[in-house]
Every structure is written in structure tokens, then in C-alpha cells.
Amino acid sequence: MHADKKMCGMEPSSEYVDLAAEVLSILSDPTRIRIVLALRQVDELPVGALAEIVGKKPSGVSQHLARLRMARMVTTRQEGTSVLYRLTDEHAIAVVAEAIKQAEHAVANGQLPPHHHSAGQPRAGS
């Protein structure tokens, strides 16, 4: 049973801790977070469209995409003369989503953050 926990990487002594820190480091840039969020909304996008969405120059976005691609968080597909970028899997968005939830808690000033409110449910204190 202990071996199963270690294999999944959830033990403090896991061999994946250093790699997890690298993942968090790569996702520590606001532009890269915006890219991940943009690719979550639209399955595939070229650099120019991503640059417009995140409000940065295509050359800068291209550099961020290269880092995400090296980390295997995004992948590419050629369509004619365009290179389309997409998330490799759901894990990068899961990390970003949890970080955003934590950020919401950090600024909630003791109130329930937005992700705790479901549609049609009254807010605390109302």
C-alpha cells in the first residue's frame, strides 16, 4: 500500500517533487497562465490569435509557447502555413485552476470566494 502512494508521487520523498516544482515554475508567469486559460476556451489557436487574447506581441507569446512546449504542456499541429497550439492534456489547466482558486481565497477578506458560489445559491450574509 505504501508503495502505491509513492508511485503516484504524493509522498514528501517522491522522486516527482523536483519535477513538480519545475511545473509550478513554468506556470508562474502570468502570460503563460493566460495562454493556458485561452487554450482552455478554444481548443487550438495560432500564435497571432493567442497574442491578441493575452495582450502581448506574437514574438513574446512564441517564446512562452516554446517553454510550455518544452515542458510538454502544449503541443502543435501544422495546418497549411499555420502552426496551431493546443493543451497536451487537462493537467496544466487543473494546476492553473487551483492556483486561481487559491488567489481568490487570498483576496476574499474572510468572505467566500466566487468559486464557492454555485448558481442559484445565496451568498453568505445575504
UniProtKB/TrEMBL annotation:
CDD domains attached to this UniProt entry: HTH_ARSR
Alphabetically ordered keywords of this record: DNA-binding, Transcription, Transcription regulation
SUPFAM superfamilies, alphabetized: Winged helix' DNA-binding domain
GO terms, molecular function: DNA binding; DNA-binding transcription factor activity
Membrane-crossing residue ranges in chain numbering: none
Superkingdom in the source lineage: Bacteria
Stretches assigned to the HTH arsR-type domain: 12-107
Signal sequence annotation: none
UniProt region (Disordered), positions on chain: 106-126
Protein name: ArsR family transcriptional regulator
The organism of origin for this protein: Myceligenerans xiligouense
Organismal lineage: Bacteria, Bacillati, Actinomycetota, Actinomycetes, Micrococcales
